[in-house]
Write a structure and sequence with these properties.
- It contains 9 helices and 15 strands.
- By secondary structure, the chain is an alpha/beta fold.
- It folds into 2 domains: 148 residues, Rossmann fold; 110 residues, Winged helix-like DNA-binding domain superfamily/Winged helix DNA-binding domain (Arc Repressor Mutant, subunit A, Orthogonal Bundle).
- Strands 2-1-3-6-7 form a 5-stranded parallel beta sheet, sandwiched between helices. Strands 11-10-9-8-15 form a 5-stranded antiparallel beta sheet, with helices on one face.
């Protein structure tokens, strides 16, 4: 993949924060070559300074980055068969909203994980992004180190699923609860043998509930499993509850598309949710 070079005048390695790195990366970075297992990321942001600065920082952290100022050249780039593992979209572009690119990607058969960046976080925008299949929504103020960590978790999970598909016998034992079968090595959920097509975030929530089947899991615990402990979202200290409710609603709807009578996720008002029944297998 051709990687656009960043302007060192905008962000040189000497001016960047001292992020912790694996010493074994140094030889690759000093030679200007990506690590052999470098994550291939695409970034779309119409702020030239920010786009080049964040690309430089991610490359400094061992990523291989291709960046674009708008969605059209990004779509054209992917149409050539160029390889990528994750797409990072700015929420607001000069040509429109980044979220408008999601259906365009799907129409072209591109199903890479998409992460949204925004300088003006809004809970409604986060709901809309996740509803259309985005896997994460990150405030630019969180910094590049947090973004890099989230991108690594997302891509490492996807790589694990690909390896499991290539060699199913190497996977761990599935987890079963009633009609549900969870393949943790692939992050896939099956209901009566049919893929529920959960996103990575949705799979994490279902896995948490099933691993503690029969007991109620708090809203905070559900949110922590897909973000991190103590993350604050929405308005006020309990704003995350609305986010969790929206996620559970999407999950229920996906199960009900396969089974109108699906009722395995129960709500305890003002407390949390639980998965009915008992799991079997390695939870």
């Amino acid at each position: 993949m051709t990687v656009q070079q960043s302007d060192n005048r905008l962000a040189s390695p000497n001016s960047l924060p001292a992020y912790p790195r694996n010493p074994s990366q140094n030889s690759f970075l000093l030679q200007g070559n990506p690590m052999p297992d470098a994550i291939r990321a695409i970034i779309v942001d119409d702020d030239d300074f920010y786009r080049e600065a964040i690309a430089t920082e991610l490359e400094y952290l061992g990523f291989r980055v291709t960046s674009f100022s708008s969605g059209e050249p990004m779509l054209a780039h992917l149409a050539t068969g160029a390889e990528a593992e994750v797409i990072v979209l700015d929420w607001k572009l000069q040509s429109g909203l980044g979220i408008d690119l999601l259906p365009m990607l799907h129409e072209k058969g591109v199903h890479l994980p998409v992460v949204f960046l925004t300088g003006m976080p809004a809970i409604a925008a986060e709901y809309a992004a996740l509803d259309l299949g985005a896997v994460d929504f990150v405030d630019k103020a969180r910094g590049t180190a947090i973004l890099a960590k989230r991108l690594r978790l997302i891509v490492q999970s996807a790589r694990g699923a690909q390896q499991a598909d290539a060699n199913p016998s190497s996977g761990t034992e599935p987890i079963q609860s009633g009609n549900l079968m969870l393949h943790t090595d692939m992050a896939r959920a099956y209901w009566n043998g049919v893929d529920v097509e959960l996103t990575l975030t949705e799979f994490k929530i279902v896995f948490l509930l099933v691993s503690r089947a029969g007991e109620y899991v708090t809203y905070r615990s559900v949110y922590d499993c897909v973000r991190y402990t103590g993350f604050v979202a929405g308005n006020g200290e309990d704003g995350f509850r609305t986010n969790v409710r929206s996620s559970i609603k999407r999950i229920r709807n996906k199960f009900r598309q396969l089974d109108d009578g699906f009722a395995d996720i129960e709500n305890y008002p003002a407390f949390g949710y639980r998965w009915r029944g008992e799991p079997s297998g390695a939870a």
